[in-house]
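User: Last request for today: this protein with zinc ion, please.
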Amino acid sequence: MANVHIVHLETPLREEFRQELARRIYFLAEEIVEFTIDGSDGLLTGVRLSTRDTVSTDQLHRRLHTVIANDIRHQRVGPVKVYWRSSHEAPDGMPDFARLCDEGLVVPMGEGQMALAEPLLTLLDNADRQLVALVRRETGAVQYRYPTLMRTETLRQCGYMRSFPQHLMFVTRLHGDSDTYAAFSDRLAFGDDLLAMCGNTDYCLPPTMCYHTFQQLSGRRLGEPMAITARGKSFRHESRYHEGLSRLWDFTIREMVFLGSRDYARQTRERIMRSVCELVESWGLGGRCEVASDPFFVGAATAARISSQRLLELKFELRLPIGGGRDIACASFNFHDQHFGDAFAITGAEGESIHSACVGVGLERLTLAIVSQHGTDPRAWPETLRPSDI
Ligand code: AMP
Ligand code: ZN
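Assistant: Here's the final one, the structure of the complex with zinc ion:
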């Protein structure tokens, strides 16, 4: 049975923090099934939470106030800097997710997990192929296909544990001894019993592709600037925030990584950002590209990190409308400064610190934005994205 908890905010929060608050609430407790944020006169005054049993209002109160104090209240918010705006208007009456399912284009498989069918697969591949051509033309990027698993140690070196513990997904396995294997095959344990038979946490599912690149180049001295691109499945535990094709636990990123001097990394990010925006314009899509920040969670000085990320313009996002007055981030353009170069001891020819930048395109989201704006009939898609046989 659901319990309802009302948590008042002792000090109300400004309305502009609604989104920052909303994106963290399900991570307070797995038991939360629904929430609404109360507010009036430009102030947020409380949160109503429905939960499945056990969790107490006091616990929720404490966690909510801690997250607000650490992650949200001291963020500096100002006007959002827009880098680019498409000359196209997104149309009215875009197909919603239910229609994509009715037409058999998308099949829900589990929490945050979707199967895609034709012609969406061809659309996704055609869009991706043009992104690869773009980055190879502009930077001579070399392409790799990385393994699915990522060492947990790599994520630690990247600082992922401190920044996004809520998204981590471990890959475990049975304790490696014949007693455990025999006990398991006798009893076929599940749940807590199964967990007692597992222990290994050496590997995770990768949350993004560029971390593979840093691990690949770990300890290397780069004679000249380097550009690498890879496409791969990326995994983030999005809790109950999973939604249709727009927020998945299991999705695909086309990643582009640039390593070299500070100027090389910054300028290449800028050049690719401009070219991706031009490509989106050539596909006739409405949208914009603007300064953004990451959903850092519960780490030290989180609010300050978010503010400086925005202030220093370390992250831009390409946001495309998908109907119902909503838009989603389909790509991000990130400048990491020396963070990953130092973390993985990657240096320049003279042993100097290397700077890096990356571009990550969410291919399911991009595909969703294209069918939302151009419809599900391939004959209405831009010629370069259509299947070749129509
Ligand atoms: P990020 O590294 O967080 O900037 O992610 C790169 C891109 O991956 C984003 O711009 C999205 O297009 C896509 N992406 C991130 N999280 C998800 C998700 N949960 N579901 C689908 N796509 C995602
Ligand atoms: Zn990246």
